[in-house]
Write a structure and sequence with these properties.
With 128 residues, this protein is an alpha+beta fold. The chain has helices at 24-33, 44-56; strands spanning 4-8, 11-22, 37-38, 61-67, 76-77, 100-104, 109-113, 119-125. The protein is built from 2 helices and 8 strands, in the order ββαβαβββββ. The longest helix has 13 residues, at 44-56. It comes from Potamilus streckersoni. Pfam families: Lectin_C (PF00059).
Length: 128
């Protein structure tokens, strides 16, 4: 799949879905190698809109560019943006080594998991 233009919560993105997945660091490196960034989802509206795109690509979960690696329990996007998401009940569990966030596109919620999990991810670059 090539990059595709989409609108997420009124913002314009050009995205590429990697359904085969990788670790969080793999995702960051792959996106950077394409002169792109890992898509950072920071609102529920973006998750809802992204559900259309993710479902078409057969993915149910994906890294969303959010972590608390810098400060346990302080969830921010890779670019430092604030996060306003609906966490699954009991999440984030803030268990040791669960420092990356994943979105469920079937249930519209977010959970924390290990950054070493192999999961789908989405890169983005400027609108083409």
């Amino acid at each position: 799949m090539d990059y595709t233009n989409v609108t997420l919560a009124g913002s314009y993105f050009c995205i590429k879905v990697y359904s085969s997945g990788g670790t969080f660091r793999d995702a960051m490196k792959i996106c950077e190698s394409e002169k792109a960034k890992l898509l950072a989802i920071t609102t529920q509206a973006q998750i809802a809109d992204l559900t259309r795109v993710s479902g078409a690509n057969g993915i149910v979960w994906a890294y969303i560019g959010i972590s608390d690696e810098a400060s346990e329990g302080q969830w921010v996007s890779w670019d430092g943006s604030a996060v306003n998401l609906n966490w699954k009940p009991g999440e984030p569990s803030n268990t040791v080594n669960q420092n990356c966030a994943f979105a469920s596109f079937s249930n519209y919620y977010v959970v924390d998991m290990s950054c070493n999990e192999y999961q789908p991810f989405i890169c983005h670059k400027k609108w083409l």
